[in-house]
Write the C-alpha cells for this entry.
Amino acid sequence: MVSGLKEKVGEVLLPGDEFCFEAEDTISLTEQVKPEKVVCGPGLRRSGDRLLVCKSGVLRHKQPNTFWIDSQQRRYVPVKGESVVGIVTAKSGDVFKVDFGGSEQASLSYLAFEGATKRNRPNVQVGDLVFAQFLIANKDMEPELVCIDGSGRANGMGVLAGGGLLFRVSLGLVRRLLAPHSKIESDLKQLFPCELVVGMNGRVWVHSCSVQQTLIIANLLQSCDTMTAAQRRELFRRVQQGVL
Amino acid sequence: MFKAIMLYCSRSKEGDKLCSVEDCNPGTGVYLRHGYIYSSLAGYVLRKNEGEELPVISVVRETEAQLLPDVGAIVTCKVTSINPRFAKVHILYVGSTPLKDRFRGTIRKEDVRATEKDKVETYKSFRPGDIVLAKVISLGDVQSNYLLTTAENELGVVVAHSEAGAQMVPISWCEMQCPRTQSKEFRKVARVQPEYLQA
C-alpha cells in the first residue's frame, strides 16, 4: 500500500478515493517481512483495513512514511497550539471575547498576558489586535486563547500596536509562509524592512516604515497567492527596481 | 396492590381540607394544621387501609409514585454539554428504574476523579453524548441541578462513541479505542463489575 500511495504523491485526490492493503501474491520465505507503517496526516483517515481520503487536494509525502492531503479551505478551524491574529470584540468581566474568523468567538482571560496579575491588568481595549495561541480548541467547547506560553513568557504574543495593516490571505499561503525555509519569506526579506505577524487563521499584520510600503507588501502577499514561484520572483524583482 | 387497598381517588388542589386527624393518619403530600389534614399538592388523594390502624391519607401528583434521585444513589446519565469547569448531564435512570422526566445534573471538574483533581481536563474525561454512571452528592437548591460525582473506580463513562461514529471499547481507566479507526480517545472509564456485563 505504501507503494500505491507513493505513486499518487503529487496527484489530485477526491473524497472517496481509497487505498487498500493489498496482499502480496508471493510471500518470500527467506526475507524478513517488515510491517509497513504509514502515518496519516490531515485529510486521510483509516477505516478498517482501508485508507480513505476525506478532503479534496494534492497528496503530499514526507520522509519516511508520512502522507497527507494539501487542501485549500476558506474557513479556519481552530486547533490547539496554533497562533492566530484576533480582534477583541467585547470585554465581559475578566474575559475578553476575541473574533478569529472561526464559527464562534474565543475567550481570552485577562490573566493570560505576560506580567498580568489581578491588580496589574493588561491594557487591552475593544478593537485591539491580539496575537495569541489556542489553549483549548475542540468541537465541543468554546475555544480559549492565551498570550503566554507554558513558562509564562509572551514570546512575541500579545497586543499588536503601533499602526500597521491587517489583511486576509488564504490558508494555503499562510502555511507556505510559515513553512521552514520558506521562499516567499526570503524573497520578502530582501524588499523592505518590515514587521510581519502571520496568523494561522489567514490573517496577516504588516507594519513597515511608511504607509506606502505597508500597502505594497500587503498587495504583494495577496496577489502572490495564485502565482507560480517564477511569476512571484518576477513580480518581486519588478517591485525592487521601483517600476511598480 | 394500590387498587386493592385504595378506597377512592379524587382530585384535590393545594390547601384543600381533606379530613380531620381522628379519621386518618397523614402521609406524603399533606400537612397538619389545627387538627385537620390539608393537602399541600395539586394531585390525587389516596387513602390506604393498613389493617387495624387508621388509614393513611396522602396526595400524589400521579397515580404511580415517582422515584427521585436521593443523596448517595447511583444514577445513569447522558452528557449534554461540557465546559472547562463542569459537565452538564441529563439523568436518565436511578439505579435500574428509568425516569419519566429527565432531571438535570452537573459534574464539577473536581468531582471527576479522586486523585489529581486539579489536573483534570473535562475534554479528556467526558464528551457530549457519553453515557455516564455517577453518584448523587447533593440535591442542589431551587435553581441549581443535582450535583454528581464520578470519583470512584466503578463510576465514569460506560458507553461512548468515537468521532468516526463507532462504539468504543475501553482499554484502560483513562482511554477508549474505536474499533473502526483504531484511534484512542481519552475518557474517565468506569470499571464495571464483571457480573453486570452482558456477553
In short: The longest helix of chain B spans residues 2-5. The helical segments of chain B are 2-5. DSSP finds one helix and 16 strands in chain B. The radius of gyration of chain B is 22 Å.
